[in-house]
C-alpha cells in the first residue's frame, strides 16, 4: 500500500490510523540526527552556581564518580550546564533514565490519534490473547500490565517483533492494572506496538517522533536488560530538551509535541498497588516513566524522576518549575547521594 493511499473501508481502526500517520511522515524532511556540540553554560563568578561546580569537582576528587555532568533548565533555556572529567557533549548510557524518552515517544502516537492508551495490545500483536487479552498499551507504559520482571528466552538480540512473541508466552504475575511491577518487558512490547502502528523500525520511529523535532542526540543500543527501557544513549543538552518538553506542557519552541493533558497523564499515578522495589531511592508512586520522589497530601507528585542503575538521574521539581539532569556512570547509589547534596544547592542558586 502506498503511503498516500486511502485505507480500505473495512480496515481495522489501527490500520486506518497507521495509514494516516505514514502519510504524514512520508513528507517529513528530517534534519541531521546529531545536534552540534554545545559550550558549557558558565554563570558569572559569584553566582549561586559556583558552589555546584565546585561540588562536581569535589565528587571526582573524592573518587565518588569518575566524571560528572549537570544540567539545570527552566522555561526555554538551560541555566547551567557543566561537566567535569568529560566534555559537555559527552554521550553515555542512561540505563533506566531511558524510560521517560521511550514513553514520551509512544505517547506521540496517542497525540496523533494513531493509538489509544486503552487499546488492547492484542489489537496489534495477535498472539497476545489468553491471560493477556485485557493488557492495554497504557498498562505497558504504567508498569502495571502484570508482566514479570524477566521472561525466559528474552534477549536484546531479538527483534522487537520476536521479543514481543517471547514476552507474550510469559505468565502474568498479577491481573492487568492490579499491581506495579517495575521492569523493561512492557516497554519492549510498547515499542513493538509503535513499530506496527507507525510502519517504521523503532529507531526510525523515535527519530521522526522525538529525535528530529527536538534535535536530540539520542540513540538506543542493546543491553542485557532491554534497550527500550535501559539502552538509551544521550548527552546533557539533549536530555535537557526532553526535560523542558515535560516542564513546558508538551511544547518545544512553540510547537506542540504532546498535548498538556498527555504530559499530565504521564505524571499521574497508575493507580495500582505500589511498593518501591529500589532501596537506594525514596519513591511514593509511579506514572509513565516517572517515579514520584515527593508527593503532596493528596498523593499528587511534587518532584518526579527517572534514575538509572549507573547513576544518571534526571528530575523535575513541579513546584519550583525547574528540571535537572545529573549525568554520571557508576552506581545508582552514588548518583543518588550526589543528587541529595546538589538539590538544595540548586534550589538556593535558583532563588538567588
What secondary-structure arrangement, pairings included, does this model have?
Blueprint: H1 13-26, H2 50-61, E1 68-74, E2 77-84, E3 92-93, H3 99-112, H4 137-142, H5 160-168, H6 185-198, H7 202-214, E4 219-220, H8 227-230, E5 232-234, H9 236-247, E6 251-252, E7 255-256, H10 260-266, E8 291-295, E9 301-305, E10 313-317, E11 322-327, H11 332-351
Antiparallel strand pairs: 1-2, 1-11, 3-5, 4-5, 6-7, 8-9, 9-10, 10-11
- The termini sit apart by 59 Å
Global Rg = 20 Å
Shape: globular
How many separate domains? 1
What's the overall average pLDDT, rounded?
88
Helical run tally: 11
Helix content: 25-40%
The total strand number stands at: 11
Q: What is the spatial order of strands in the main beta sheet?
A: 2-1-11-10-9-8
Share of β-strand residues: 5-15%
CATH superfamily: DD-peptidase/beta-lactamase superfamily
Characterise this structure.
A hairpin with a 7-residue loop joins strand 9 and strand 10. This protein has a single domain (53-351), classed as DD-peptidase/beta-lactamase superfamily (Beta-lactamase, 3-Layer(aba) Sandwich), CATH 3.40.710. Helices cover 36% and strands 13% of the residues. The strands form 3 sheets. A 6-stranded antiparallel beta sheet has the order 2-1-11-10-9-8, with helices on both faces. It has helices at residues 13-26, 50-61, 99-112, 137-142, 160-168, 185-198, 202-214, 227-230, 236-247, 260-266, 332-351, and strands at residues 68-74, 77-84, 92-93, 219-220, 232-234, 251-252, 255-256, 291-295, 301-305, 313-317, 322-327. It is an alpha+beta fold and 352 residues long.
Amino acid at each position: 500500500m502506498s503511503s498516500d493511499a486511502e485505507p480500505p473501508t473495512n480496515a481495522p481502526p489501527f490500520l486506518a490510523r497507521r495509514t494516516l500517520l505514514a502519510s504524514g511522515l512520508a513528507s517529513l524532511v528530517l534534519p541531521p540526527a546529531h545536534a552540534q556540540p554545545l559550550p558549557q553554560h558558565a554563570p558569572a563568578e559569584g553566582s549561586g552556581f559556583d558552589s555546584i561546580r565546585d561540588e562536581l569537582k569535589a565528587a571526582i576528587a573524592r573518587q565518588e564518580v569518575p566524571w560528572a555532568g549537570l544540567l539545570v533548565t527552566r522555561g526555554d533555556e538551560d541555566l547551567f550546564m557543566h561537566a567535569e572529567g568529560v566534555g559537555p557533549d559527552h554521550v553515555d548510557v542512561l540505563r533506566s533514565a531511558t524510560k521517560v524518552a521511550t514513553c514520551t515517544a509512544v505517547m506521540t502516537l496517542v497525540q496523533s490519534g494513531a493509538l489509544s492508551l486503552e487499546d488492547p495490545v492484542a489489537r496489534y500483536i495477535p498472539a497476545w490473547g489468553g491471560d493477556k487479552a485485557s493488557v492495554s498499551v497504557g498498562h505497558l507504559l504504567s508498569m502495571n500490565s502484570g508482566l514479570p520482571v524477566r521472561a525466559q528466552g528474552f534477549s536484546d538480540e531479538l527483534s522487537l517483533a520476536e521479543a514481543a512473541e517471547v514476552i507474550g508466552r510469559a505468565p502474568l504475575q498479577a491481573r492487568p492494572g492490579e499491581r506495579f511491577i517495575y521492569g523493561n518487558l512492557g516497554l519492549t512490547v510498547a515499542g513493538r506496538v509503535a513499530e506496527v502502528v507507525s510502519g517504521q523500525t523503532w529507531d526510525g520511529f523515535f527519530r521522526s517522533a522525538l529525535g528530529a523535532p527536538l534535535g536530540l542526540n539520542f540513540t538506543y543500543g542493546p543491553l542485557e536488560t532491554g534497550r527500550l527501557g535501559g539502552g538509551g544513549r544521550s548527552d546533557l543538552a539533549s536530555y535537557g530538551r526532553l526535560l523542558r518538553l515535560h516542564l513546558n506542557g508538551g511544547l518545544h519552541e512553540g510547537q506542540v509535541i504532546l498535548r498538556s493533558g498527555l504530559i499530565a497523564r504521564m505524571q499521574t499515578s497508575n493507580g495500582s498497588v505500589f511498593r518501591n522495589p529500589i532501596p537506594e531511592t525514596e519513591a511514593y508512586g509511579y506514572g509513565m516513566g516517572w517515579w514520584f520522589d515527593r508527593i503532596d497530601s493528596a498523593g499528587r507528585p511534587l518532584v518526579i524522576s527517572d534514575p538509572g542503575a549507573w547513576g544518571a538521574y534526571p528530575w523535575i521539581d513541579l513546584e519550583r518549575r525547574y528540571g535537572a539532569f545529573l549525568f554520571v556512570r557508576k552506581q545508582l547509589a552514588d548518583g543518588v547521594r550526589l543528587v541529595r547534596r546538589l538539590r538544595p544547592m540548586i534550589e538556593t542558586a535558583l532563588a538567588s
